[in-house]
Design brief:
This is Tyrosine-type recombinase/integrase. Residues 197-371 form the Tyr recombinase domain. GO terms for molecular function: DNA binding. 51% of the residues lie in helices and 9% in strands. It folds into three domains: 6-92, Integrase, DNA-binding domain (Double Stranded RNA Binding Domain, 2-Layer Sandwich); 97-176, DNA polymerase, domain 1 (Orthogonal Bundle); 204-366, Orthogonal Bundle (hpI Integrase, Chain A). The chain is an alpha+beta fold. The chain is elongated and about 105 Å long. The strands form two sheets. The chain has a four-stranded antiparallel β-sheet with strand order 1-2-3-4, covered by helices on one side. A two-stranded antiparallel ribbon has the order 5-6. The chain contains 16 helices and six strands.
Length: 385
């Protein structure tokens, strides 16, 4: 045994077999020599009754003094109950964020979420998260990594925030699955960007224009009766697009749409007389359970966005999305005094806070009514000068 110094290690000749030279000053610090001439610094320690060794670096890449300092740090970690060798192996075995995402979709989302959520999460991971963070190991991703990702996407705040949201869910599960230490989720202190909520409602003039265009395009054969009825049902019921697009005859009663499953679970949607009358004009196709049919096949009408683009262009409503028809239904309800609690049930909102986004519309109605009352009183009272 001798003190391991750079000069001493340089002087050691390669033997016929692999060997270890131990330092005579720092117990557990050694040098492993190979017949090829390669020399590697190591540290040996005992934890829970088991002897382990950890490589500190190759001679020539690190000096003897640097390796000695590294050995002391390892021994300090061991004294605190840590196992540096096991932690390194765990890091090497750690999946990447991309691999965690695949497991997250397969073992969590597909089992506990709606198919639409699975679709959205898969696209979010593929198009937003993985290109930036996909290659980083789950055990090594840090707050700085997440922060840089969020900052890079600042021009698309909705995507940036949803990316952090799905990462938060994934990394919480990574802790549950033993892939990260508990309570180390680095997404927790990321401040979300403000999002400008898209609210677009059709006023009465726009509603009339849309009705005229739907009728014209139906009469001229540019849209089928099924498409015509589908858009009217969206306006008359406040349903989500998927709820009408995938509506089956078994769900239709005289007064309600009885949906066994929706975005918020089972729903019982009031079916006004006008909406029921439109449904009654539709022909059924033998062997096809759906109400809104395509031109052929056994399924439902697949792409409602395609005819909608033509309809809104003809009506001069290029900025209106299909989902804005649901917003229009809600706005008409609120402006006509429908109670928010009742509207929540009609629209199938999970939380009242979602329904209360439309509350400002009732304020407008109240303001208008107050103005009419004041005008009438002022006319009766005469000049106030």
């Amino acid at each position: 045994m001798a003190k391991l110094t750079t000069r001493y290690v340089d002087s050691l000749a390669a033997g016929d077999k692999e060997s270890i030279s131990w330092d005579d000053e720092l117990a557990g610090f050694g040098l492993r020599s190979y017949p090829s001439g390669r020399k590697v610094y190591i540290v040996q320690y005992k934890l829970h009754g088991r002897t382990r060794r950890k490589t500190l670096g190759r001679h020539g890449v690190v000096t003897a003094d640097e390796a000695r300092k590294g050995a002391k740090l390892v021994q300090a970690d061991v004294a605190r109950g840590m196992d540096p060798s096991a932690e390194r192996k765990a890091r090497l075995r750690s999946p990447t964020i991309k691999q965690l995402g695949e497991r997250f979709l397969k073992e969590h989302v597909s089992l506990h979420c709606k198919p639409t959520t699975l679709y959205d999460y898969r696209n979010l991971l593929r198009g937003v998260v993985n290109p930036v963070l996909g290659g980083i190991k789950v055990s090594e991703i840090t707050f700085s990594d997440i922060q840089a990702f969020h900052l890079k996407r600042r021009d698309t705040p909705y995507q940036a925030n949803r990316g952090v949201m799905v990462l938060s869910k994934m990394l919480n599960l990574a802790e549950d699955w033993g892939l990260r230490a508990m309570n180390t989720n680095p997404t927790r202190r990321i401040k979300r960007y403000p999002e400008e909520e898209k609210k677009r409602y059709l006023d009465e003039t726009e509603q009339e224009r849309l009705g005229e265009v739907l009728a014209e395009m139906f009469k001229s054969g540019q849209i089928s009766r099924y498409v015509f009825v589908a858009f009217y049902l969206l306006l008359l019921t406040g349903c989500r697009l998927s709820e009408i697009q995938k509506l089956k005859w078994d769900f239709v009663t005289k007064t309600h749409l009885e949906l066994p499953d929706s975005k918020t679970g089972r729903r019982r949607i009031p079916l006004p007389r006008e909406a029921r009358a439109l449904i009654d004009t539709l022909e059924r196709r033998e062997g096809n359970p759906y109400v809104i049919l395509g031109d052929h096949g056994t399924g439902h009408y697949n792409d409602m966005q395609k005819p909608w683009r033509k309809i809104r262009a003809r009506a001069g409503l290029e900025d209106v999305r299909v989902h804005d028809l649901r917003h229009t239904y809600a706005s008409v309800a609120v402006m006509n005094g429908v109670d928010p609690f009742m509207l929540k049930e009609i629209l199938g909102h999970k939380n009242l806070s979602t329904t209360l986004r439309y509350a400002h519309l009732s304020d407008d109605a109240v303001q208008k009514a107050a103005g009419q009352i004041a005008n009438r009183l002022a006319a009766t009272l005469g000049s106030m000068a």
